[in-house]
Every structure is written in C-alpha cells, then in structure tokens.
Write a structure and sequence with these properties.
Elements (H helix, E strand, L loop, with lengths): L2 H36 L2 H22 L2 H7 L5 H33 L4 H8 L1 H7 L2 H9 L3 H24 L4 H22 L11 H24 L1 H9 L1 H36 L4 H38 L4 H29 L3 H24 L4 H14 L1 H12 L3 H25 L6 H22 L3 H10 L5
C-alpha cells in the first residue's frame, strides 16, 4: 500500500472512529444523565461490582483471537470458522460455570440481590461470542464506518431500553438490561455488515495454531481488566454498594470521555502499524504522528473535563453525587494518558511482541493491586487509593516508552517532543481559565464559561502558532489534501 493511500485510510479511520466514538459517548452521556436522575449510587454499585466478572468472561471467550486474526494479512475461511465455533463453545461453558457460582459471588459482596442480576448480566458475553469473528472481519478490513454505525445503533437502542426500565421502577435492572441489549444489537449489526458466514464444517485446529499468539493477548486482556476493575472489587467488598457506585459513576464519565479518543486509536493503530511493520523508519514516522495526534486531542479534552467535573456532576446529579464530581476531577488525569498507553500497547502487538505487551500489563496490574491493598490495610481511604492509581498509570508510560525504544528505536527525546509541548500548553491554558473564572458563582455559568474560554484559547493559539497537526486535522475534516 502506498504512503498516500495508507495516510488517507488512517486519516479516514481516525476521523470516523473519532466521530463515531464522539456520538456514542454523547448518547451514553445523555442516557447516563437520565439514569443518574432516576437511580441512586447504590443501584449503580450493584452493577459496577459485577462488571469485572462479566468482562473477564468476555475476554476468556474471545481469547485474543480478534487481534490474532487482524495480525494475519489474509485470514482463511477455515481460520475464521475455527475461531467462531471455539468462541461459542467456550462462552457456553463459562456461562454454565458462572451460573452456579452466582451465589458465591453474591456471598462475597454480602448482597443476595446479585444472584439473579449476575445470571442475567453474564448472558452478555454469550451473545458476544456469536459476533467475535464478524467484529474481527470489520476491524481487519478497517471498515471503521460500518463499525461506527453498529456501535451508534446499539447505543441508541440499549439506552432507550435502560432508561425506560429505570423510569418504570426496575432500578439496577435498567442498567443491566442496557448492557445486555447493547451486546445483542451490536452483534446483529456486525452480522449485517460482515460478508463472512460460518459453516458447519467444524475444525478447531486453526484456532489452536493461533492460540500461541492469542494466548498472550488473552493473559494481557485479563490483567488489563483486573487493573481497571480493582476498585469495583475492593470498594464493593470493603466499602459497600454506595462507595462502589460513587467511584463507578465517576469512572464511567472518565471512561466515556477517554473512550472517544481511545476508540480512535484502537480502530486504526494496530492495522495501520501492521501495514508498515517491514519499514522501520516509516513505522517510527507513522507512530510519532499518531502520538502527536492523540496528545493534541486527549490532553485538552480530558484535562478540560477535569476543571468542570465538580460543577458538571452537581448540575446533572445533584448533591447526592457530589463526591463523584471530586473523584471524576482526579480521574481525568488518568483519562488524559490512557489513550497513550493504548497506542504504545498496540505498538508492541503490531511488532509481533505480544509477550512484551503481556509482561508490561501484568506488572502494572500487580503494582495496582498491591498498592491498593496496602493502602487499605494501613487505614487509607478511597481518595488516597485513587491518587495512587492515577500516579502509577501515568508513570507506567515510562515502561512502555523504554520498550518502544528497544523495539523500534523510538528515542526518549522524540517522545518528549511529541507529548510535552501539548501537555504544558494545555496545563497553562486550563490554569489561566480556572483562575479567571473563579469569581463566577452560578454553576451553569461557571461550567460553560470555562468550556468556552479554554476551547477558544486552545484552538486560537494553536491556529495562530501554525501547529501542523491542527491544520492537517482540519484539512482531513474538510476533505482537503495536504
């Protein structure tokens, strides 16, 4: 593929991924606002505590095969078919196991309501197994527009179901139904857009042959889940439903904001980097450009959310959610750096070093859990745990960069030049915005003023200073060739 063609496909992928994730996060935000008004922190906590089990089960049934298929230039029908039937068999077995373990899970948290809720929520990964190969097909062929339509449709339908059930008094069942409905709808849409279809000629040998690569990704996914859901277990066990709901809601908003950029990275990073894997110099150029684009977008977006987080939560949820606002303001620092971790992770996978990716993720997860448990044992509360979690995840970028230097010769100086100017520039603008708006007392005026001033200053100064990444982004949006 020519450099121009790759550049255009990557740009289209990033823009479609950005727009679709933006729309999905907007829909998720609107439905989330409605659910916050209708439900209590304890309702959110019940679902949040079960997320780790459903997500782990989903990772086990998928087993890293999506990335393994994508890493192949032209997967065969036999390989697709083997993965399809393998996923269905595994997911069915896991669901039966978790059905019988539901009482033990509920006993761990001391909440019998979780037994039927868990058995219902766990259906989501069974439904997901029927679309793993279709998702891999769309992903590998960089059909970002079609993937975007699938996600947006599923978000719209599931949001309506969730809010309707919560309005009718079904409480936490509304959130659980939203989750399951989303999975069902997105799989149906994936089947609609994917041209691949399974056959009854079942041969699992190709799946086992790919398992050497995918098993490392599976272990990585599991430890990523344990890292991201550490609080759901610890808070649910030791602090109760309400505290789990307070943190879970703050994390939900942080994830939605970071997910917009992270979705863009996931949609195109690995396929694009895999296309230039044989040309090391070009690979470094493509990676650095992606790095600059992510920093250009995620630093102002996430850190900007941080300076309006408390006002935003108070406006949409009221005083009972005030603590979530303070947690969200802190978590936005994590969200600002999270897409960078994803980009570096995709670098190791696209270079064929899934073992490196696995080792880095395991180390990070162990450090998170060890630190959080020690903080709890020594009597520290949720705030101290959140600070530790954020600091560790930001500093871990140094580990990823060390590996990037070894794998592709990505110098520390280059990484600093691609990230630090955007970070310091954003901090300066947001600091000035925060200071100049301090006298404003009305929550709505304060939030909107900070958003408008920060956006105008960031965009205006970037444009006047002639920032290349901004002009290229606008050029792509206007379908201009630079």
């Amino acid at each position: 593929m020519s450099e121009k063609s790759l550049k255009e496909r990557t740009a289209r992928g990033l823009l479609w991924g950005g727009m679709s994730n933006g729309i999905m996060q907007l829909l998720g935000a609107l439905f989330g606002l409605a659910l916050m008004r209708l439900l209590t922190p304890a309702d959110w906590g019940k679902v949040y505590m079960l997320n780790i089990f459903a997500t782990l089960a989903s990772a086990l049934q998928e087993s890293g095969f999506s990335a393994a298929l994508c890493n192949k230039r032209e997967p065969s029908h036999e390989e697709y078919n083997a993965v399809f039937w393998f996923n269905i068999m595994v997911s069915s077995g896991i669901y039966v196991l978790l059905w019988f373990l539901a009482p033990s899970i509920a006993g761990f948290y001391g909440d019998p309501d979780l037994i039927p809720l868990a058995r219902f929520m766990f259906l989501s990964f069974v439904f997901a197994s029927f679309g793993t190969v279709q998702r891999a097909y769309l992903f590998g062929h960089m059909m970002v527009r079609e993937t975007s339509i699938c996600g947006i449709t599923a978000m719209l339908v599931s949001g309506i179901v969730g809010v309707s059930m919560a309005y009718m008094g079904f409480a936490h069942w509304g959130i659980a139904s939203q989750t399951v409905t989303f999975v069902v709808v997105v799989q149906m849409m994936n089947w609609f857009y994917s041209s691949w279809r399974p056959s009854l000629d079942i041969n699992l040998r190709p799946a086992w042959q790919m398992f050497k690569f995918s098993s490392k990704l599976l272990v990585t996914y599991i430890f990523n889940i344990l890292n991201n859901h550490a609080f759901s277990v610890l808070l649910g066990k030791y602090f109760g439903n309400r505290q789990a709901g307070i943190y879970g809601t703050a994390r939900k908003w942080d994830d939605m904001a970071a997910g917009t950029i992270n979705g863009m990275v996931i949609a195109v990073a690995q396929p694009t980097l895999a296309q230039v894997a044989t040309d090391k110099d070009r690979y470094v150029q493509v990676f650095r450009k992606m790095l600059r684009f992510v920093c250009f977008i995620c630093f102002p977006a996430l850190l900007g959310l941080g300076i309006i987080a408390e006002e935003f939560i108070l406006i949409v949820g009221g005083e009972r959610w005030a603590e979530s606002g303070r947690i969200l303001a802190m978590l936005c620092i994590h969200g600002a750096f999270f897409p960078l971790n994803t980009l570096y992770s995709n670098l190791t996978i696209s270079r064929g070093h899934s073992g490196v990716n696995m080792a880095c993720t395991i180390g990070q997860c162990l450090a998170v859990w060890t630190g959080l448990i020690l903080l709890y044992i020594n009597g520290y509360g949720m705030i101290h745990m959140v600070v530790y979690f954020i600091a560790l995840n930001v500093l871990w970028l140094g580990i990823w960069q060390w590996w990037a230097k070894r794998l592709i010769g990505m110098k520390w100086r280059w990484a600093a030049l691609d990230t630090m100017p955007f970070l310091f520039f954003t901090i300066g603008i947001l600091g000035f915005t925060w200071w100049i708006t301090l006298p404003i007392g009305n929550l709505w005026c304060l939030m909107l003023s900070r958003m408008a001033i920060a956006a105008l200053l960031y965009g205006g100064i970037m444009w006047i200073s002639g920032a290349k990444i901004m002009r290229e982004t606008i050029g792509y949006l206007l379908h201009k060739k630079k």
